[in-house]
Design goal:
With 311 residues, the chain is α/β, with parallel strands linked by helices. The chain contains seven helices and 13 strands. It has helices at 2-22, 42-48, 73-87, 104-117, 137-143, 181-192, 222-229, and strands spanning 26-31, 34-39, 53-58, 91-94, 122-124, 153-157, 160-164, 200-203, 235-239, 247-250, 253-257, 290-296, 303-309. The strands form two sheets. It has a seven-stranded mixed β-sheet, with helices on both faces. Strands 6-7-8-9-11-10 form a six-stranded mixed β-sheet. A hairpin with a 2-residue loop joins strand 1 and strand 2. It is globular and about 50 Å long. Residues 1-48 have low confidence and may be disordered.
């Protein structure tokens, strides 16, 4: 029986990897940490229509970047926000790298684009590009939540508990993310009073599983964080940073990484290292960038996760 489950899990990973590079959309129903894939279309829309609330994830806008394969990341971010608005989510979560070099004018540009798009409430976590030079002071002044001195926070929506973590300060050797003892202690206390039946959604910029540590695609102390989450029947962990869709299932925890709204990066281990995938032709770029729409049905242990490319 274990071999069957392993084969199914591998099949889901392979399918998701193929969908990422094809740029197509997929509806994912999550039940007890296991995803069931359904191609987007009329049936997919019906499956999510009775959602009690939804939220959109955008990531890695890299405002200020102006090289191949995308010389106008502001334009593609604006397109992504228009797609978000069309979905009418309850709120939006940006999972980091708002800017490319954490310059005040880049933060200004992003704030103006978000305000102009009128997409409603937006929550943020920083990426490593947002904390360059000042350890995130400019980011936290503009976009940080005020719940905790370290900037991490949580909130509840429609019976789901959301946790926003910060793992881009004090990066470890090789560029791996780090949560740190203070944040881990807070996370343990934040989750302690919740029923194990409470669905939990965790956001951070860098992956909280080891996608490819050789490129810094992981978080050094994520194992301890996951140990606090394993008692819950439904946990979704959403990250950015690697600019492509990857997925992993560990028991009741499902990890997702997201597309960028700016540019794709190579698949893990393909090529000399991470960075903008410059071989993408301008007329093909929109197939590799996009947003994620997530819908929750009250009283059901299921999240419908839809990947939307800009093409």
């Amino acid at each position: 029986m274990q071999d069957v489950h392993d084969n199914q899990a591998q099949g889901r990973r392979d399918f998701l990897k193929c969908m990422a590079w094809a740029g197509a959309g997929t509806l994912w129903l999550m039940k007890g940490g296991v995803l069931h894939a359904q191609p987007l279309g009329d049936g997919a829309g019906a499956a999510a229509r009775d959602a009690s609330f939804s939220f959109a994830q955008i990531s890695d806008s890299h405002i200020g970047f102006h090289k191949a394969p995308n010389t106008d990341v502001g334009a593609t971010f604006k397109e992504a926000l228009a797609l978000v608005k069309k979905q009418k989510p309850t709120f939006v979560m940006h999972t980091g790298d708002l800017t490319h070099l954490s310059k005040p004018e880049q933060f200004d540009t992003l704030a103006g684009l978000v305000q102009g798009a009128n997409v409603g409430r937006v929550f943020y976590v920083p990426g490593e590009h947002d904390v360059i030079g000042d350890n995130g002071a400019e980011y936290f002044r503009r976009f940080g939540e005020r719940q905790q001195p370290g900037g991490w926070y949580s909130f509840d929506q429609g019976g789901v508990h959301f946790v926003a973590l910060i793992n881009v300060l004090n990066l470890k050797a090789g560029g791996l993310g780090s949560l740190g003892a203070d944040q881990l202690g807070w996370l343990k206390n934040d989750l302690a009073g919740l029923s194990s039946e409470t669905p939990v959604v965790v956001f951070a910029h860098m992956p909280l599983w080891s996608v490819y540590p050789q490129w810094g695609w992981g978080t050094d102390d994520s194992t301890e964080a996951m140990s606090y989450l394993r008692r819950f029947g439904s946990v979704s962990v959403l990250n950015g940073h690697i600019h492509q869709i990857q997925q992993k299932v560990e028991g009741t925890i499902t990890f997702y990484t997201a597309r960028s709204t700016a540019y794709p990066q190579p698949a893990p281990g393909v090529g000399p290292g991470p960075g903008p995938l410059q071989t993408v032709a301008p007329d093909a770029l929109h197939r590799y960038i996009g947003i994620r729409d997530v819908r929750h049905v009250q009283g059901k242990d299921a999240l419908a996760v839809t990947e939307e490319a800009l093409s």
